[in-house]
Amino acid sequence: MYDKKIIYNLKYEPRDVQIEALEFIKYQIRHGKKYMMINSPTGTGKSFFAVMFINWYLNHINPDARFDMLTNSKILQNQYVREFPFIQSLKGRNSYTCHTYNCSCQEGKEMNKALKRTCDNCPYDAAFSSWILSDVALTNFHLFDTLHLFLPGHLDNKKSNVLIIDEAHDFESVLCDFISMKISERSLKLLGFNDVKIHHIGERLKNVRTVLKFIDFINDYFMDEMTQLLENLKTLLSNPRITQPEKIRVSKNVTNLEGTI
């Protein structure tokens, strides 16, 4: 057997290909390697292998290690949790339901900000707290990038010392998509701009021919437009006379604007 103690139940017997992959990792770690990559085809049981590795690492390298696991989709997150319930998974706020406002927790938090309120027993906050405290914590590429960019202190407090990335070949493209933005009619509508303002922005963009002119466009014009729109929408959100569907629509615009800014 490859381990002396099963810390997390594997449910099945390891296959030869999984044991071979683990032997490769063990050899690299024992020879001082810090970063390793395995190219393993679909169907070879990468999630099962990841838990095999966690067991071995806790037994032989560091019994107090804490693990961050990343996947490239919510579907894979769900699969991990179904197979290994001890893994604590965290998704974005949009994946949790706010029972106070009957919308997503993302939209609910925007409404709370505008109304200067808080929700009791927020599902996202509960999931986030469990994820922070978990020894084996799972999330997706997008949320991991978000937390690193906007809440690095939380991840420092988490004190994880082993990172496992599933489908790692997608990680770079997700990061690049995450820190880029298209300025189009559709994207401007999602930010909450009306048709007149969208037309005006388009006319201004026609004169942008170089990178330097684009930087000037962003700094001298577009940032001011977004900031002003954000203030207007937050004011609208705090208006008690607007309907619940309107509140949800505006809170989505606010979320998109804050992310873009």
Helical fraction: 55-70%
Largest sheet: 4 strands, parallel
Q: What is the number of domains?
A: 3
Overall shape: globular
| Class from secondary-structure proportions | alpha/beta
Please list the strands of the largest sheet in the order they lie side by side. 2-5-1-6
* CA-atom Rg in angstroms: 23 Å
Mean pLDDT across residues: 90
Number of helices: 12
> In percent, how much strand structure appears in the residues?
5-15%
**Total strand count, please?**
6
Extract low-pLDDT stretches.
none
Order of helices and strands: HHEHEEEHHEHHEHHHHH
**N→C terminal distance:** 53 Å
What does this structure look like?
The chain has about 260 residues and is an alpha/beta fold. The chain has three domains: about 60 residues, no CATH class; about 120 residues, no CATH class; about 80 residues, no CATH class. Helices cover about 55% and strands about 10% of the residues. It is built from twelve helices and six strands. It has a four-stranded parallel sheet, sandwiched between helices. The chain has a two-stranded antiparallel ribbon with strand order 3-4. Helix 1 packs across helix 2 and helix 6 crosses helix 7. The chain is globular and about 65 Å long.
